[in-house]
Amino acid sequence: MAVKRKNKNIFVFGIFAVDISFYIDKKVKPGETIIAKGSNIGPGGKASNQAISARKLGGNTTLITRLGNDNFNSYANTVWSKEKLSISAKIDRTLPTGMAGIFIDDKTGENSVIVHPGASAQLSISDFNSQKSKMQKGDIFLTQFEQSSDTTFSVLKEARKLGMITIFNPAPFGKINKKVYQSCEIITPNETEAEQITNISLKGKRDVEKAINKIRDLGVEKVIITLGKKGAAFFDGQRISFCPGNNFGKVIDTTGAGDCFNGALASALSFGKDLRQSVEFSCAAAGLSVLKKGTAQSSPTRVELNKVIKAT
């Protein structure tokens, strides 16, 4: 007989990558070499970032991923051990651990990212099945689109069959099998991804509402569109609402803010918060994350988040 838990477990499926970030004050032209204002090396990959965010905020979190047989393997495990994150990571003997190159505007904090998933590109349903016995009805399952579309569909479908709350963060955006929409309870595109899914230009509130309704028509139960500094819009199964963004200080680096939002969302849902409460919680977490450099490193702890929530 399964033991009933106070908080639900979170399972995050996807890639780990080592982030190499450069802070620049101009866009690089073809054939041009420029001097960066600064640089940073840290843990990345959407799944790893989201899992660390969920864990730092108090969620009982397991990351399902793959690593290469290299030095970055050891680095990843050191980072995860520090955060006390549960890990299921198959080692690939032929492919390297994933890497990402990130270019950050030193003035605005906006970023551009190039990712090579490496060993994580080989993630499959077998990686999901290795943790299946630990998954229970009502647990949270979160995945993105950095692994293959076939694998994404397979794991969402299986998680849904188990009665888990399935969250699909369609990033980076790619061609999505329509069946995927029917297997995710919650979808969390940003503005750009929502425009790509719906072919609607999000210039205002009414456009956002139209996009949410169009995504609902694809078969998704609940929709959240993250709107950067403007917060988020969401459909909770009954109505469309808007959650304003948070201005906690000077924006330093927006890299990983979306991942922080998704990790926070999974964490809040695991505590039993409803969708509105979870979106508000996630907007606050993302708003704090942009005040620091880095991706996973910038995600706030539960103590840090509670302080700003009480202050507002």
SSE layout and pairings?
Blueprint lengths: L8 E5 L3 E8 L13 E7 L1 H11 L3 E9 L2 H12 L3 E7 L4 E9 L5 E8 L6 H5 L10 E4 L5 H13 L3 E4 L9 H6 L2 E2 L3 H8 L6 H12 L5 E5 L5 E4 L4 E4 L13 H14 L4 H15 L12 H10 L1
In short:
This protein is an alpha/beta fold and 312 residues long. Helices cover 34% and strands 24% of the residues. β6 and β7 (111-118) form a beta hairpin.
Radius of gyration: 18 Å
Strand order, main sheet: write it out: 5-4-1-8-9-10-11-12-13
Give the N-terminus to C-terminus distance in angstroms: 43 Å
The residue-averaged pLDDT reads 91
What order do the SSEs take from the amino end to the carboxyl end, as H and E? Answer: EEEHEHEEEHEHEHEHHEEEHHH
Number of helices: 10
Total E-strand runs: 13
Structural class: alpha/beta
Portion in beta strands: 15-25%
3D architecture notes:
The protein is an alpha/beta fold and 312 residues long. Helices cover 34% and strands 24% of the residues. The strands form 2 sheets. The chain has a 9-stranded mixed beta sheet, with helices on both faces. The chain has a 4-stranded mixed beta sheet with strand order 3-2-6-7. β6 (97-105) and β7 (111-118) form a beta hairpin. α1 (46-56) crosses α8 and α6 crosses α7 (205-216). The chain is globular.
Give me some keywords for this one.
13 strands; nine-stranded mixed β-sheet; 312 residues; 10 helices; single chain; globular; alpha/beta; four-stranded mixed β-sheet
